[in-house]
Amino acid sequence: MAAGDSALSICSDALILLGAAPISSFNEGTDEANTCDRLYPDVRDATLQMYPWSFSFKKVQLARTINTPVNEWTYEYTLPSDRIGPPRAVFNSTSVGARPMTRWEIYGDKILTDETTIVIDYQYSVSESVMPVYFIQLLKYQMAWHLAEPITDQVQKTDYWKTIALGSPGENNRGGYMRTAMNIDGQGNTPQMIEDYSLIAVRY
User: Fold this and answer.
1) For the chain, what is the mean pLDDT?
2) pTM
3) How far apart are CA 172 and CA 168, in angstroms?
4) Fewer CB within 10 Å of terminal CB in the chain, N or C?
């Protein structure tokens, strides 16, 4: 993690990248502070949702509500309040080796299903204090991009910092520093291996 980093320090560093003065508080009353205060939460959560970052997931068992869905489904469960985006996986068991299920549906902040037990893997709005260094750096570039026009009134700087953060349009938001951050994040995942494939097996 990047010790000492906060929403304020990320925004201040982004302003410095734009040649502006850093801010000391989101409530200091300057245009820079007000703009950062309005934009940062959405930029942070949007950047988290752009990729399944390894540090941004939780696994929790959901609480069933007392309500009964009108039709189709039997049970209703409340989704976590810190969730961003849909669940990555839904399980009907807390047992070791449980496999994701496919029959469920989201309505608002509820998940509907016929199962009596629901466990989900979901992405959440991570505190800056636990974000790794590579993601903090990506957030600074993302904020520089989003702050460039309102702070400097220069569209060229907006285009420049977007390219630094995400690469060229042809790279589908997977270039620039985003690619570096994804590569670093992926180093902590188990490599995917083909253990049994019938077309390979018949050759031996």
Assistant:
1) 90
2) 0.83
3) 8
4) C
